Amino acid sequence: MSDLVAAIATKETPTVGENPIRSKAPVWLVLVGLLGLTASVVVGLALPNLKITAFAGGFFRLDATSKLFLLVVNAIVLGVATYVWTRVNAIPALQAGVARYVAFCVAFVLACNLAILSNHLIALWVLLELSTLAAVPLIQHGGLAATRASWKYLLFSGVGLALALLGFLCLEQGLESHGSEVGLWIDGLTSISPGPLDAWGRIGLALVFLGLGTKLGLAPMYAWLPETYEAAPPATTALLAAVQFNVALVALLRVLEFARRLDPFAVSYELVGLGLATMLVSALSIIAARNYKRLIAYAALNHAGVIAIGLGIGREATYGVIVYVVSNAFIKAILFLTAGKIQAHYRSSEMADVSGLIKDLPYSGMFFMVGVFALLGLPPFGSFLGELILMSGLISRGLISVFVAFCVVLTVTFVATGRAVFPMIWGEPRKKADWASQPIASILPKLVFLSALIAMGIYLPAPVNALFRQVATSLGAP
Rounded to two decimals, what is the model's pTM? Predict the structure, then answer.
């Protein structure tokens, strides 16, 4: 709580008569998050057999993939909304501009939810583009450096999404040559007969992987990610890393649902290659990192690389990838929201300026410590189980060279991250420990995320496990 107290001390108190709509805006965001999560739980878990093949003119559908990712995305949104609400209540000066921020958040969340439900690749693309446009002012809310980062984000996203659109059009041309007349309707694509893709189809597949890889932070189009994640407000970074990332991943999964049956070798080689390259870039960047927000961003690159490799392997590794993806979302939400409170307390995002977190800021220190453990893939978290299944898949497929490279890069990442972060957590405090009890509302979302991480590593409730397996099966898992 001392991080909030220190931040309050540097802010001016708003004048009397401030627009009351401002102070209520975060409450509306919390209600939006609560409504979205409630609806997702009902259709995803309470009604496990509910499957709506198409609605709204066929442009949207509800299946296992959309059910799972609606749950994950809306859980993160509610956590972020609660964070915004508690921060604004604790620091009244933050009410300036909060109504505008909440409005763009709602637009962003709506676009992301509709994208997950999309039954047409072009409609999904349009909604992903709309979420990108809504994210730009959310990034700019962080100040001058964030404004510069937002333009870089917009430039890379624009190029990446343009490549993805061109890839979809090439894929459609290739599928027509293949004899398919389903266009880019997802429910039709998943039912086309197996057969090799022609040159148009393979070019389209490569462009889609490169374009969507830009949004996921895969090499070589990853340069926007570290700067944007560092400069944006913590709530925005959590939305980008744990919400929009998963929307882009859903787009990739929709392509993989049919592309793996048509050209499995192209899918495997391209995704495994992109994944290994991204993990290598991440490891080298973590070694050189001096900023803890950037370090978490580079770790996010590593996670994206692991996911790409797992999707490239397919088969029995697919279930592990799904567990890893969901774990990854909660890990990033915990770490980025906690990093915001740490930065508010120390007035710095440099690792050299932070020491003794567990004593100085015990709540933030505890979440940061546990988040780093999960980030490194230690038991009992879901990330550990996901990586274990993925490595087993590498061995069963006979990809020993990839397995060795994967383990080496993962080890380097583990050592470099621990060397940088552990002194921050357990070093000698440089500031007097002056903290008070923290409101339960400010820590409850991260406690829920942490509980989900542990549950995925130890025991998943049957309805959730069934949903995970349904998504894995749709991607070709046995």
Answer: 0.91
- State the 10-residue block means of pLDDT for the chain, 478 residues long: 35 40 79 95 81 78 94 96 89 83 96 96 96 96 87 96 95 79 83 81 93 94 94 95 97 92 84 95 94 93 95 90 95 93 85 87 88 89 92 91 94 92 84 59 85 89 91 84
SS (H, E, C) the chain: CHHHHHHHHCCCCCCCCCCHHHHHHHHHHHHHHHHHHHHHHHHHHHCCCCCEEEECCCCEEECHHHHHHHHHHHHHHHHHHHHHHHHHHHCHHHHCCHHHHHHHHHHHHHHHHHHHHECEHHHHHHHHHHHHHHHHHHHHCCCHHHHHHHHHHHHHHHHHHHHHHHHHHHHHHHHHHCCCCCCCEHHHHCCCCCCCCCHHHHHHHHHHHHHHHHHHCCCCCCCHHHHHHHHCCHHHHHHHHHHHHHHHHHHHHHHHHHHHHHCHHHHHHHHHHHHHHHHHHHHHHHHHCCEHHHHHHHHHHHHHHHHHHHHHHCCCHHHHHHHHHHHHHHHHHHHHHHHHHHHHHHCCCEHHHCCCHHHHCHHHHHHHHHHHHHHCCCCCCHHHHHHHHHHHHHHHCCCHHHHHHHHHHHHHHHHHHHHHHHHHHHCCCCCCCCCCCCCHHHHHHHHHHHHHHHHHHHCCCHHHHHHHHHHHHHCCCC
